[in-house]
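Format notes (please read before filing issues)

Several people have asked whether sequences and structure tokens are stored in separate files. They are not. Every record keeps both together, in the order shown below: the sequence lines, then the token lines. Line labels are part of the format and must not be stripped during preprocessing.
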Amino acid sequence: MEYAFTQTIKIELQKHFGAQANELFERSLLLQYLNIKTRAANRGSKSRNSFANLYALYVLAEDYLRGGYDKTGDYSKYEGAVFSHLFQRQRELPFGRKLQNHALNHRLNEEFKKYFPTCKYTPIIRDGRTNRYWVNHNLLRLKIGKRRFDLAASLIAIINEYIRTKSAAFEAFIETCVKLKELKASAPRKVEAFILDLLARTKTPAL
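Then the structure lines:
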């Protein structure tokens, strides 16, 4: 499916992978998931709901890159990321201050299964005994021909672009509210009609 933000995703993939960008976009379930989750990029509502699962993926990909596993090393031997570190990092990101732990613990995996029920992998691997976490390597790497492609850096770049787009949409919404406040005294009925129309156009299903 093509959404308003899909072109931005493809541009980021082209920066990282060149001619293989389109095939990676079509074949990667993680990229398809990002495409679904970012479909409301230009709308300002439901910010926390939009970011929770994306940020769970973001912080795990970030941890993976920090260990250099996109270049060298055996990720299967990594002891895993500590939950408290991941959770703190999520809350440091824009719009993340009030995020809860549900996305890391189960919500991302459950939603991913809903969209891709035949896939035998989930994005997050978790050891409940040690409370350690990994991003699923089977979804993070793709092989096209004889080449293997690692998606970690591109996932973070795409989510960063989504953050910028959502921030711009939110700032535009605030500017509109300020202008409406200034107009309210002179034309209250027009202001009311405009707000109702705006709300109707920005209502979207929970992502």
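For reference, the curators noted about this record: The first helix runs from residue 6 to 17. Strands lie at 81-82, 124-127, 132-135, 141-144, 147-150.
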